[in-house]
Amino acid sequence: MATTARWRPAIMLDRIARALVEPASIVGGIALMLLALVVTADVAARAAGFALVGAAEAGGVLLALLVFLAIAHTQRIRGHVAIEALVVLLPPTLRRCAEAVSLALCLAFAVVLAVTTASAAWHSYQSMEFQVGTLPFPIWPVRSVIALGFVLFALQLLVHLLVALAAAVRPDAAGGPGGSGEAA
Amino acid sequence: MEAHLLVVAIFALGILVGLPVAFVLLIAAFAGLVALRGFPVAMIALSNMPYGKVTDLALMTIPLFILMGAFATQAGVSASAYQMANRFVGHLRGGLGMATVFACAAFAATSGSSVATSAAVGRIALSEMRRFGYDRSVTAGTIASAGLLGIMIPPSIMLVVYGIITQTDIGQLLVAGVLPGILTGGVFCLGLYLLARLRPDLMPRADQRFSWRQRVSGLRDGWGIAVLFGVIVGGIYSGLFTATEAAAVGAVAAFLMVLARHGFQWRALLSSSREAAGSCAMIFLILIGAGLLSQYIALSGLARLLGGIVSDSGLPAWVILAIILAAYIPLGMFLEPISLCLITLPIVFPTVTALGYDPIWFGIIVVKMSELANITPPLGVNVFVIKAIDPDMPITAVFRGAGFFVLLELVTLALLVALPEISLLLPQLMLG
Q1: Does B54 lie at the interface with A, CB-CB under 8 angstroms?
Q2: Which of B173, B165, B139, B200 is nearest to B387 (CA)?
């Protein structure tokens, strides 16, 4: 681990986040390979003169899995694109503060996203909402994956925020603001 | 008006603290919607947007093209492309630079990303150009700029994103990218040749010769590129596949190429796929933010208002187009290409099409402007790829080298604007 904010809560939380975020992203990667196979199988079936019932619906589920289960991993490796043209011009102390503010804003909004998408998933389950298509397909599994993705994303953002706060408060205990952000 | 000010203020704050682009869009659009229609409406829009994006089947094209590029890289397509190109043009004046352009064009036919193209070809090209004493700055600028072909030549992620945002036919857009991509490569090669004639010290002639037998036999290395390009462009052009289906079949074909070259290596395959899923996650989060911003713009009537101002201005259409394109240059200095398109298109696209410009042609022009964004300071993403490949390379040297290609890009842009047929010929033939 490149950056070490030796602050026990951050270390503990990072272990939990890693145990959840990494397997989720592996499922996302598998879903992407399956998506390619499902769409290709659909093309082959059409060429052979029959329709692969449920391929479009399966594609929707796989797309949700690959995107939302990988969102937290992308944050873990700091892969979400940011406009840092001004931040890099700030002195180190202010830069650490800007990073903490940025992460706090992201975390707050990720929590809003997690709550609102989880609520939508719950309503969808309660009302047994179905998608109209070749197969009547329940909507709540896809909505649940979206909500789970945002929960994991919020968790990872919390870990990064704790690291950033530790770096801002005790620069000597942290590896600096430019590191990978991993907590242990 | 207050809502617009709030949105602009949040954009400014986001840039100030270095917020991820997706969150800048999400928070600004959400705040704008709250100001316009109240909290409950904004919450409903926010809760439904992620679901709306994953059920849009056209969006499946993006992860599948990214996966295809990841597998093609793993199959060693970039090395084959460079060796193939080097045998044909490597001995000419500026030949190794031209070989880099040709290799990037060939690799671009398997990858939709300019960053991936620069990174894949860059490692091999950098060592070869160094070996024959090419100027550092020219070497770095050539690799960073030749990678731009990755976002024009199909499969292009940028054109897919443009098609989704503007509801333009993605198949036609991808086919439209072929000739402008070839034109860009041609202008780059011509520019390198002229530079080599004027300043031979920058690009010494490489002391290497290949017989025609060696060149022709080297073409066999390019079979993978030919297969993937044939599946995508051939499949879409002939009407055999939709863009999404072509992407899926291309990904499976690239997967089979990996199997043929390296056997079944589960960990490596999963690693490529996981990395591709991570890239998709980043793009989709931005798309969700852009979707919410589009809703805000639609509800606020901003696009209509700007359209009215433009039509009342009495300026000729070409002047308005020139102003819009000029605005893309400074914006591109601070925004990466996908964000640049997603932020500007909801406002700019209705105005441009209302002026009578073709949406397919404008897509090509927007992608060309995005290419410039990738090599201009301070945030030229491709420039940082070269820095990552060669950490000893001064960033100023890369930007200096890329500056020459910015001029060549402007020449290409002028040709594409003056002759829309270059972009529209193939889509028109496709429609019959």
Answers
A1: yes
A2: B139
